[in-house]
Amino acid sequence: MPKQQVTKDDWIQAALTAVARGGIAAVRVDVLAKDLGITRGSFYWHFADREALLVAMLEWWERVLTTEIIERLEKVDSPLERYHDIVANAFFGRRDRNGIEPALAANADDPIVAPFLRRVTTARLRFLTQLFADLGLPEPAARQRALVTYGAFVGWLQLRHTSPDTVPELMATATEPMAEHLTSLLLADIDTQTTRAPGTGP
Question: Which domain holds residue 19?
């Protein structure tokens, strides 16, 4: 790929792929340059150093996989639709980067990773807590259900990443039965027939 055609986003995507494959330590400029088919020197057209690339990569992760998703779902009136969207995409969505979340969690004490991980975790739990509150759960039950849901999500990705042969069910293409089972557990005590958007009245 000619140097002038390699964009900043190309480097970020290559870094994300490397993280999913081998963790933060796998983000090495020389290796990424080889993967992109260019010289190491062209890296400096876009970044001052490796740390700048890591920051840009983490900014992408926070924006695209958290901020933009929350902003989109906050426009959906029905909390039940929001819930099903989250389950479909978070648990059963694209799998080519399953390793990103476990890799970042494994580097939670890294001074670059830590603030991003803290903000993302806080934002996701806040959103889930509000979601379960909108589904009718009082505090602190909504917060507790959010923690259970997020814990299941983190564990789900960890198993997919580290034990795909041991848990083939999580790698299956047809995951509808598992989604239904997860829903039956998380919404067991919620009357989904009468759930309404906040402020819509009785």
Answer: 3-186
